[in-house]
Amino acid sequence: MNSFETTVEKSRIRYHDVPGSGSPLLFIHGLGCASSFDYPRIASDPALLGRRMLLVDLLGSGFSDRPAGFGYTVEDHARTVVALARHLSFASLDLFGHSMGGAVAIVAAGLLRDRVRHLVLGEPNLDPGGGVGSRRIAAMSEAEYVAHGHADLVRASWSEGNGTWAAPLSISSPQAVHRAATSLVAGSRPPWREQLYALPMPRVVICGEASLPNADTERLPLADVKVAVVPAAGHAMAWQNPSGLALALQRALA
User: 95-112 as b/e, with b when 16 or more CB fall inside 10 Å?
Assistant: First the structure.
């Protein structure tokens, strides 16, 4: 595993660098998740064979450090992704962001601009208000969430059979999760949706079949954002149909 020292308390962001050729594909995970946990099966799928890929754990998640003074907002995370891309001197790259990571990828693409060849998003946060999980977290104060809310959420996720979230969530920084959830609920100005529409590179949003109907399947193409559907999957598409997600990524990046 590789690491990059950020300017935030000299904390390190860690990532798997899967060797390959062409423009690298950088994976950005969702709230309480970790790319090192979510995406190895995607990166090893035959559909993406031979492509260089970076599986990045955002600060506060997975193997990366947990600096107490970091804001953990969507914009904060995007700036660390941009710093990593610039540190690695990527002349071009592709971005994939899932859920919260989709909003992070949108902001990062806006900062990197011409370096990003393709922007691919898996059911991204586009509007203020967050999702069910982030609203549940943000409804508590940070002190309450750190004291008991995080542990309660991990236990509830295990009991509900959602181990693919409970496992990485259990090792995530509670402060990081709460601050990121609060950022998702608050949204941004301009909204991430408007930022997405204004970006110049090819853009694709991937939805899980079980998440349909979704108004964005008709709304996004009107803004020249393509939509793809992964069959036999919902929001957790990387776990529910990894081969289907890998194939959708291959087609989006073609």
Answer: bbbbbbbbbbbbbbbbbb
Single-letter code of the amino acid located at 195? Q
Query: What is the C-alpha separation between 239 and 86, in angstroms, rounded?
Result: 30
Distance (Å, whole) CA 37 – CA 55:
9
Whether the CB-CB separation of 209 and 221 falls below 8 Å is answered with: no
Indicate whether 178 belongs to any domain.
Answer: no
Question: Is 202 inside any structural domain?
Answer: yes
Q: Which amino acid is at 194?
A: E
Rounded distance, CA 200 to CA 225, Å? 10
Residue 143 within a domain: no
Domain holding 38, by residue range, is: 2-130+185-253
Average pLDDT over residues 80-101: 97
pLDDT tens digits along 102-111: 999 999 999 9
The domain total for the chain is 1
Contacts for 37 with CB less than 8 Å, ≥ 6 apart: 29, 62, 167, 168
CATH number at residue 90: 3.40.50.1820
Cα dihedral 34→32→154→147 (10° resolution):
130
Per the domain annotation, does 73 fall within a domain? Answer: yes
Give the pair of three-digit tokens for residue 101: 């990571």
User: Of the candidates 162, 154, 137, which has an alpha carbon nearest to the alpha carbon of residue 72?
Assistant: 137
